Amino acid sequence: MYTGKYLSRLRQERRMTQIDLSNITGIRAERICEWERNKHQIKLSVFLVILKALHIKNISYILRDINE
């Protein structure tokens, strides 16, 4: 599974729009959309900021579907 799909799934599980995520992280909604569509790779440092904003403390949670 690509990082963008993880990001999309995590955001949707929290019933957030891309705009909601943009508002709490300060990242443009357009960039979030590009990541979710895998048009651009997300930097690990930025991904960790997003995880923190989504209150995800256990990183293994996002890796649970590694075989998809």
Structure description:
By secondary structure, the protein is an all-alpha fold. Helix content is 54%, strand content 0%. The chain is built from four helices and no strands.
In short:
This protein has four helices and no strands. It has helices at 3-13, 18-25, 29-36, 44-53.
The value of Rg in angstroms is 11 Å
Briefly note the structural class of the backbone.
mainly alpha
What integer is the average pLDDT?
A: 86
How many angstroms does the end-to-end distance come to? 5 Å
Unreliable runs, pLDDT <50, ≥5 residues? none
Strand percentage: under 5%
Order of helices and strands: HHHH
Shape: globular
Number of strands: 0
What percentage of residues falls in helices of 4 or more residues? 40-55%
Largest sheet: none
| Helix segment tally | 4
In terms of topology, how is this protein built?
Layout: H1 3-13, H2 18-25, H3 29-36, H4 44-53
Helix pairs in contact: 2-3
Top keywords for this entry?
68 residues, single chain, globular, 4 helices
